[in-house]
Design a protein that fits this description.
TIM Barrel; nine-stranded parallel β-sheet; eight-stranded mixed β-sheet; binds N-(iminomethyl)-L-glutamic acid; binds fe (iii) ion
Protein backbone atom coordinates (compact mmCIF):
# COMPACT_ATOMS: atom_id res chain seq x y z
CA UNK A 1 0.00 0.00 0.00
CA UNK A 2 1.48 3.39 -0.93
CA UNK A 3 2.29 5.61 2.05
CA UNK A 4 2.82 9.37 2.38
CA UNK A 5 4.27 11.22 5.34
CA UNK A 6 2.78 14.69 5.82
CA UNK A 7 5.44 16.38 7.95
CA UNK A 8 6.41 19.78 9.37
CA UNK A 9 2.86 20.44 10.59
CA UNK A 10 3.05 23.32 13.04
CA UNK A 11 -0.29 22.55 14.68
CA UNK A 12 -2.28 19.35 14.15
CA UNK A 13 -5.90 18.98 15.30
CA UNK A 14 -6.49 15.28 16.01
CA UNK A 15 -9.76 15.55 18.00
CA UNK A 16 -8.32 12.88 20.29
CA UNK A 17 -7.47 14.31 23.74
CA UNK A 18 -5.24 11.27 24.37
CA UNK A 19 -2.90 12.34 21.55
CA UNK A 20 -2.32 15.99 22.48
CA UNK A 21 -3.47 18.99 24.46
CA UNK A 22 -7.07 20.02 25.15
CA UNK A 23 -10.28 18.61 23.69
CA UNK A 24 -8.86 19.03 20.17
CA UNK A 25 -5.84 16.86 21.02
CA UNK A 26 -3.48 19.45 19.52
CA UNK A 27 -0.01 18.22 18.55
CA UNK A 28 2.74 20.75 17.75
CA UNK A 29 5.48 20.02 15.16
CA UNK A 30 3.53 16.97 14.07
CA UNK A 31 3.55 14.44 11.25
CA UNK A 32 0.84 12.13 9.90
CA UNK A 33 1.45 8.90 7.99
CA UNK A 34 -1.21 8.10 5.41
CA UNK A 35 -1.27 4.50 4.17
CA UNK A 36 -3.79 3.69 1.47
CA UNK A 37 -7.12 5.18 2.58
CA UNK A 38 -6.28 5.25 6.30
CA UNK A 39 -4.17 7.07 8.83
CA UNK A 40 -1.39 4.74 9.97
CA UNK A 41 0.61 6.89 12.41
CA UNK A 42 0.31 10.29 14.16
CA UNK A 43 2.97 11.95 16.32
CA UNK A 44 5.85 14.42 16.58
CA UNK A 45 7.82 15.03 13.35
CA UNK A 46 11.04 13.99 15.12
CA UNK A 47 9.75 10.43 15.58
CA UNK A 48 8.07 10.02 12.20
CA UNK A 49 8.47 6.68 10.39
CA UNK A 50 9.73 6.31 6.80
CA UNK A 51 7.25 6.51 3.93
CA UNK A 52 7.20 6.06 0.15
CA UNK A 53 6.72 9.79 -0.34
CA UNK A 54 6.75 12.98 1.72
CA UNK A 55 4.58 16.10 1.76
CA UNK A 56 6.00 19.19 3.44
CA UNK A 57 3.28 21.11 5.33
CA UNK A 58 5.75 23.99 5.69
CA UNK A 59 4.86 24.89 9.23
CA UNK A 60 1.13 25.29 8.66
CA UNK A 61 -1.89 23.73 10.41
CA UNK A 62 -3.65 20.46 9.53
CA UNK A 63 -7.22 19.66 10.62
CA UNK A 64 -9.60 16.74 10.02
CA UNK A 65 -11.67 17.22 6.85
CA UNK A 66 -14.96 18.95 7.64
CA UNK A 67 -18.03 16.75 8.08
CA UNK A 68 -21.01 18.65 6.67
CA UNK A 69 -23.93 16.71 8.10
CA UNK A 70 -26.82 18.76 6.63
CA UNK A 71 -27.40 19.99 3.08
CA UNK A 72 -30.09 20.03 0.38
CA UNK A 73 -28.17 19.78 -2.87
CA UNK A 74 -30.33 17.86 -5.30
CA UNK A 75 -32.03 20.87 -6.82
CA UNK A 76 -32.22 23.03 -9.91
CA UNK A 77 -32.71 26.75 -10.34
CA UNK A 78 -31.95 29.73 -8.24
CA UNK A 79 -33.74 31.97 -5.70
CA UNK A 80 -31.86 35.22 -6.14
CA UNK A 81 -35.12 37.17 -6.33
CA UNK A 82 -36.29 35.76 -3.00
CA UNK A 83 -32.92 36.64 -1.44
CA UNK A 84 -33.14 40.17 -2.81
CA UNK A 85 -36.64 40.53 -1.39
CA UNK A 86 -35.45 39.31 2.02
CA UNK A 87 -32.57 41.72 2.05
CA UNK A 88 -35.14 44.45 1.39
CA UNK A 89 -37.08 43.42 4.49
CA UNK A 90 -39.32 40.49 3.49
CA UNK A 91 -39.34 37.58 5.98
CA UNK A 92 -38.19 34.05 5.05
CA UNK A 93 -41.11 31.65 4.51
CA UNK A 94 -40.96 27.87 4.10
CA UNK A 95 -43.24 28.27 1.05
CA UNK A 96 -40.29 29.46 -1.06
CA UNK A 97 -39.35 25.77 -1.26
CA UNK A 98 -42.11 25.43 -3.93
CA UNK A 99 -40.09 27.54 -6.38
CA UNK A 100 -37.23 25.05 -6.19
CA UNK A 101 -39.63 22.09 -6.38
CA UNK A 102 -40.95 23.35 -9.74
CA UNK A 103 -37.43 23.89 -11.13
CA UNK A 104 -36.19 20.54 -9.84
CA UNK A 105 -39.08 18.57 -11.32
CA UNK A 106 -38.41 20.19 -14.69
CA UNK A 107 -34.68 19.37 -14.69
CA UNK A 108 -33.08 16.30 -16.27
CA UNK A 109 -31.20 13.67 -14.24
CA UNK A 110 -27.97 14.91 -15.84
CA UNK A 111 -28.62 18.51 -14.80
CA UNK A 112 -29.35 17.51 -11.21
CA UNK A 113 -26.27 15.28 -10.99
CA UNK A 114 -24.03 17.97 -12.48
CA UNK A 115 -25.35 20.62 -10.09
CA UNK A 116 -24.78 18.30 -7.12
CA UNK A 117 -21.24 17.48 -8.29
CA UNK A 118 -20.47 21.18 -8.72
CA UNK A 119 -21.51 21.99 -5.15
CA UNK A 120 -19.73 18.96 -3.68
CA UNK A 121 -16.55 20.05 -5.44
CA UNK A 122 -17.01 23.61 -4.22
CA UNK A 123 -17.28 22.26 -0.66
CA UNK A 124 -14.29 19.96 -1.10
CA UNK A 125 -12.14 22.95 -2.08
CA UNK A 126 -13.13 24.47 1.26
CA UNK A 127 -12.09 21.41 3.21
CA UNK A 128 -15.28 19.32 3.37
CA UNK A 129 -14.56 15.61 2.91
CA UNK A 130 -17.90 14.13 4.02
CA UNK A 131 -21.23 15.42 2.85
CA UNK A 132 -24.77 14.49 3.82
CA UNK A 133 -27.47 15.53 1.37
CA UNK A 134 -31.25 15.27 1.18
CA UNK A 135 -34.13 14.93 -1.22
CA UNK A 136 -37.08 17.26 -0.64
CA UNK A 137 -37.42 19.25 -3.86
CA UNK A 138 -39.29 16.54 -5.77
CA UNK A 139 -42.27 15.69 -3.56
CA UNK A 140 -43.64 12.99 -5.87
CA UNK A 141 -42.76 9.29 -5.59
CA UNK A 142 -40.73 9.44 -8.80
CA UNK A 143 -39.01 12.75 -8.16
CA UNK A 144 -38.02 11.93 -4.57
CA UNK A 145 -36.67 8.49 -5.55
CA UNK A 146 -34.80 10.08 -8.46
CA UNK A 147 -33.21 12.70 -6.16
CA UNK A 148 -32.04 10.03 -3.74
CA UNK A 149 -30.68 7.82 -6.49
CA UNK A 150 -28.67 10.74 -7.87
CA UNK A 151 -27.46 11.67 -4.37
CA UNK A 152 -26.45 8.09 -3.58
CA UNK A 153 -24.16 8.08 -6.63
CA UNK A 154 -22.12 10.90 -5.08
CA UNK A 155 -22.28 10.42 -1.28
CA UNK A 156 -23.07 7.62 1.16
CA UNK A 157 -24.90 9.96 3.55
CA UNK A 158 -28.29 10.27 1.92
CA UNK A 159 -31.48 11.46 3.62
CA UNK A 160 -35.08 10.98 2.53
CA UNK A 161 -36.92 14.29 3.07
CA UNK A 162 -40.19 13.71 1.22
CA UNK A 163 -41.64 15.61 4.20
CA UNK A 164 -39.99 18.93 3.36
CA UNK A 165 -43.32 20.68 2.79
CA UNK A 166 -46.72 19.33 1.79
CA UNK A 167 -46.53 18.86 -1.97
CA UNK A 168 -48.43 21.60 -3.85
CA UNK A 169 -50.35 18.73 -5.52
CA UNK A 170 -51.84 17.87 -2.10
CA UNK A 171 -52.49 21.43 -0.84
CA UNK A 172 -56.14 20.55 -0.16
CA UNK A 173 -55.39 17.24 1.56
CA UNK A 174 -52.21 17.27 3.68
CA UNK A 175 -53.21 14.03 5.43
CA UNK A 176 -53.14 12.21 2.10
CA UNK A 177 -49.65 13.59 1.48
CA UNK A 178 -48.47 12.23 4.84
CA UNK A 179 -49.94 8.86 3.81
CA UNK A 180 -47.93 9.02 0.59
CA UNK A 181 -44.71 10.00 2.40
CA UNK A 182 -45.12 7.11 4.86
CA UNK A 183 -46.38 4.69 2.19
CA UNK A 184 -45.51 4.42 -1.50
CA UNK A 185 -42.91 7.20 -1.42
CA UNK A 186 -41.07 5.66 1.51
CA UNK A 187 -41.16 2.29 -0.22
CA UNK A 188 -39.54 3.77 -3.35
CA UNK A 189 -37.01 5.92 -1.47
CA UNK A 190 -35.80 3.71 1.38
CA UNK A 191 -33.41 1.64 -0.77
CA UNK A 192 -31.34 4.75 -1.58
CA UNK A 193 -31.28 6.40 1.85
CA UNK A 194 -29.68 5.91 5.24
CA UNK A 195 -31.70 8.61 7.03
CA UNK A 196 -35.23 10.00 7.21
CA UNK A 197 -35.90 13.66 7.97
CA UNK A 198 -38.95 15.91 8.37
CA UNK A 199 -39.35 19.69 8.47
CA UNK A 200 -41.32 20.06 11.71
CA UNK A 201 -42.52 23.66 11.59
CA UNK A 202 -45.61 25.82 11.18
CA UNK A 203 -46.36 25.81 7.44
CA UNK A 204 -44.67 22.41 7.02
CA UNK A 205 -45.45 19.41 9.31
CA UNK A 206 -46.78 19.47 12.88
CA UNK A 207 -45.62 17.24 15.74
CA UNK A 208 -48.15 14.46 15.09
CA UNK A 209 -47.35 14.33 11.39
CA UNK A 210 -43.61 14.40 12.09
CA UNK A 211 -43.98 11.54 14.58
CA UNK A 212 -45.89 9.43 12.03
CA UNK A 213 -43.29 10.13 9.33
CA UNK A 214 -40.20 9.37 11.41
CA UNK A 215 -41.81 6.29 12.95
CA UNK A 216 -42.67 4.90 9.52
CA UNK A 217 -39.09 5.55 8.37
CA UNK A 218 -37.68 3.76 11.40
CA UNK A 219 -39.86 0.75 10.66
CA UNK A 220 -38.21 0.67 7.21
CA UNK A 221 -34.73 0.74 8.75
CA UNK A 222 -33.99 4.44 8.23
CA UNK A 223 -32.53 6.45 11.11
CA UNK A 224 -34.35 9.67 11.99
CA UNK A 225 -33.02 13.23 11.94
CA UNK A 226 -35.27 16.27 12.18
CA UNK A 227 -35.50 19.92 11.11
CA UNK A 228 -36.57 21.28 14.47
CA UNK A 229 -37.34 24.66 16.05
CA UNK A 230 -35.95 26.69 13.15
CA UNK A 231 -38.51 29.45 12.60
CA UNK A 232 -40.45 29.17 15.87
CA UNK A 233 -40.77 27.24 19.12
CA UNK A 234 -42.31 23.81 18.59
CA UNK A 235 -42.33 20.11 19.38
CA UNK A 236 -39.51 19.10 17.00
CA UNK A 237 -36.53 18.94 19.33
CA UNK A 238 -38.21 16.89 22.05
CA UNK A 239 -39.83 14.62 19.48
CA UNK A 240 -36.43 14.02 17.89
CA UNK A 241 -34.84 13.11 21.21
CA UNK A 242 -37.78 10.85 22.12
CA UNK A 243 -37.55 8.97 18.80
CA UNK A 244 -33.77 8.59 19.03
CA UNK A 245 -32.95 10.96 16.17
CA UNK A 246 -29.24 11.17 15.42
CA UNK A 247 -29.57 14.92 15.14
CA UNK A 248 -32.00 17.80 15.70
CA UNK A 249 -31.11 20.48 13.20
CA UNK A 250 -31.43 24.29 13.46
CA UNK A 251 -32.39 24.52 17.19
CA UNK A 252 -32.86 28.27 16.90
CA UNK A 253 -35.87 28.67 19.21
CA UNK A 254 -35.34 26.51 22.30
CA UNK A 255 -37.11 26.37 25.65
CA UNK A 256 -35.23 25.20 28.75
CA UNK A 257 -37.00 21.84 28.38
CA UNK A 258 -35.66 21.53 24.80
CA UNK A 259 -32.12 22.26 26.00
CA UNK A 260 -32.49 19.73 28.84
CA UNK A 261 -33.75 17.09 26.41
CA UNK A 262 -30.73 17.61 24.13
CA UNK A 263 -28.32 17.59 27.06
CA UNK A 264 -29.67 14.35 28.48
CA UNK A 265 -30.30 12.42 25.23
CA UNK A 266 -28.06 11.11 22.43
CA UNK A 267 -29.40 13.52 19.82
CA UNK A 268 -26.78 15.97 18.51
CA UNK A 269 -27.84 19.63 18.22
CA UNK A 270 -26.77 20.62 14.71
CA UNK A 271 -26.59 24.38 14.29
CA UNK A 272 -26.78 25.94 10.83
CA UNK A 273 -25.68 29.57 11.05
CA UNK A 274 -25.72 30.03 7.28
CA UNK A 275 -29.52 29.88 7.51
CA UNK A 276 -29.75 32.59 10.16
CA UNK A 277 -27.27 34.69 8.19
CA UNK A 278 -29.25 34.41 4.97
CA UNK A 279 -32.70 34.78 6.53
CA UNK A 280 -31.65 37.56 8.93
CA UNK A 281 -32.97 35.56 11.86
CA UNK A 282 -31.78 35.36 15.46
CA UNK A 283 -28.69 33.22 16.02
CA UNK A 284 -28.97 29.82 17.68
CA UNK A 285 -27.44 29.98 21.17
CA UNK A 286 -24.58 27.51 21.00
CA UNK A 287 -23.20 28.67 24.35
CA UNK A 288 -26.41 27.74 26.14
CA UNK A 289 -26.37 24.25 24.61
CA UNK A 290 -22.69 23.65 25.33
CA UNK A 291 -22.98 24.89 28.92
CA UNK A 292 -25.92 22.53 29.46
CA UNK A 293 -23.81 19.61 28.19
CA UNK A 294 -25.38 19.03 24.77
CA UNK A 295 -23.25 17.81 21.83
CA UNK A 296 -23.17 20.52 19.16
CA UNK A 297 -22.39 20.10 15.44
CA UNK A 298 -22.04 22.84 12.84
CA UNK A 299 -23.18 22.41 9.27
CA UNK A 300 -23.93 24.56 6.21
CA UNK A 301 -27.56 23.59 5.40
CA UNK A 302 -26.48 24.44 1.86
CA UNK A 303 -29.65 24.96 -0.21
CA UNK A 304 -30.80 27.57 -2.73
CA UNK A 305 -33.39 29.10 -0.39
CA UNK A 306 -32.35 29.68 3.19
CA UNK A 307 -28.57 29.15 3.17
CA UNK A 308 -26.72 29.10 -0.13
CA UNK A 309 -23.22 28.57 1.24
CA UNK A 310 -21.13 25.41 1.01
CA UNK A 311 -18.43 26.89 3.24
CA UNK A 312 -17.77 25.29 6.61
CA UNK A 313 -15.10 27.94 7.38
CA UNK A 314 -17.79 30.62 6.93
CA UNK A 315 -20.09 28.76 9.35
CA UNK A 316 -17.24 28.45 11.86
CA UNK A 317 -16.61 32.19 11.66
CA UNK A 318 -20.31 32.97 12.28
CA UNK A 319 -20.53 30.51 15.16
CA UNK A 320 -17.52 32.08 16.86
CA UNK A 321 -18.52 35.68 16.22
CA UNK A 322 -22.23 35.41 16.97
CA UNK A 323 -23.16 32.17 18.71
CA UNK A 324 -20.81 32.15 21.68
CA UNK A 325 -18.52 29.36 20.54
CA UNK A 326 -14.75 29.45 21.01
CA UNK A 327 -12.67 28.75 17.88
CA UNK A 328 -11.76 25.36 19.39
CA UNK A 329 -15.41 24.44 20.03
CA UNK A 330 -16.43 25.51 16.53
CA UNK A 331 -13.64 23.48 14.89
CA UNK A 332 -14.66 20.41 16.91
CA UNK A 333 -18.34 20.92 16.02
CA UNK A 334 -17.53 21.17 12.28
CA UNK A 335 -15.49 17.96 12.30
CA UNK A 336 -16.04 15.55 15.21
CA UNK A 337 -19.49 17.05 15.90
CA UNK A 338 -20.61 16.38 12.32
CA UNK A 339 -19.28 12.83 12.59
CA UNK A 340 -21.39 12.31 15.74
CA UNK A 341 -24.44 13.70 13.95
CA UNK A 342 -23.87 11.07 11.24
CA UNK A 343 -23.04 8.36 13.79
CA UNK A 344 -19.65 7.82 12.20
CA UNK A 345 -16.50 6.88 14.12
CA UNK A 346 -14.17 6.65 11.11
CA UNK A 347 -14.18 10.37 10.25
CA UNK A 348 -13.86 13.73 12.01
CA UNK A 349 -10.55 12.87 13.69
CA UNK A 350 -6.93 12.25 12.79
CA UNK A 351 -6.11 9.04 14.63
CA UNK A 352 -4.68 5.67 13.67
CA UNK A 353 -7.24 3.70 11.67
CA UNK A 354 -9.43 6.69 10.80
CA UNK A 355 -10.15 7.52 7.18
CA UNK A 356 -7.39 9.74 5.82
CA UNK A 357 -9.52 12.87 5.37
CA UNK A 358 -7.44 15.97 6.14
CA UNK A 359 -7.17 19.64 5.24
CA UNK A 360 -3.95 21.65 5.19
CA UNK A 361 -4.50 25.33 6.01
CA UNK A 362 -2.61 28.35 4.75
CA UNK A 363 -2.36 29.41 8.39
CA UNK A 364 -0.36 28.38 11.45
CA UNK A 365 -3.45 27.46 13.48
CA UNK A 366 -7.09 26.42 13.03
CA UNK A 367 -8.05 29.58 14.96
CA UNK A 368 -7.40 31.55 11.76
CA UNK A 369 -10.57 30.04 10.23
CA UNK A 370 -12.59 32.37 12.50
CA UNK A 371 -9.95 35.06 12.89
CA UNK A 372 -9.61 35.58 9.09
CA UNK A 373 -13.22 35.21 7.85
CA UNK A 374 -13.80 35.09 4.13
CA UNK A 375 -10.17 34.30 3.31
CA UNK A 376 -9.63 31.05 1.35
CA UNK A 377 -7.35 29.30 3.86
CA UNK A 378 -7.63 25.71 2.64
CA UNK A 379 -4.44 24.87 0.72
CA UNK A 380 -4.76 21.12 0.19
CA UNK A 381 -7.29 18.38 0.95
CA UNK A 382 -6.80 14.62 1.23
CA UNK A 383 -9.91 12.48 0.92
CA UNK A 384 -9.76 8.75 1.47
CA UNK A 385 -5.97 9.06 1.47
CA UNK A 386 -5.75 10.74 -1.92
CA UNK A 387 -4.75 14.34 -2.52
CA UNK A 388 -8.03 15.72 -3.90
CA UNK A 389 -7.35 19.48 -3.91
O1 LIG B 1 -33.11 23.78 6.22
N1 LIG B 1 -35.95 24.29 6.77
C1 LIG B 1 -36.26 23.69 5.75
N2 LIG B 1 -35.50 23.47 4.72
C2 LIG B 1 -34.39 24.28 4.36
C3 LIG B 1 -34.81 25.40 3.51
C4 LIG B 1 -35.04 24.99 2.16
C5 LIG B 1 -35.44 26.07 1.21
O2 LIG B 1 -35.79 27.21 1.60
O3 LIG B 1 -35.38 25.74 0.03
C6 LIG B 1 -33.61 24.69 5.58
O4 LIG B 1 -33.42 25.87 5.90
FE1 LIG C 1 -32.20 22.08 6.06
Amino acid sequence: MPSTLIHSIRSLVTNDPALGTGPLGLVEDAAVLVEGERIAWVGPSSKAPQADSAYDAQGQAVIPGFVDSHSHLVFAGDRTQEFNARMSGQPYKAGGIRTTVAATRAASDEELAANLAKHLHEALRQGTTTFETKSGYGLTVEDEARALRIASEQTSEVTYLGAHIVSPDYAEDPAAYVDLVTGDMLEACAPYARWIDVFCEKGAFDGDQARAILTAGKAKGLIPRIHANQLSYGPGVQLGVELGAASADHCTHLTDADVDALASGDTVATLLPGAEFSTRAQWPDARRLLDAGATVALSTDCNPGSSFTSSMPFCIALAVRDMGMTPDEALWAATAGGARALRRTDIGRITVGARADLALLDAPSHVHLAYRPGVPLVLAVWRNGALAV
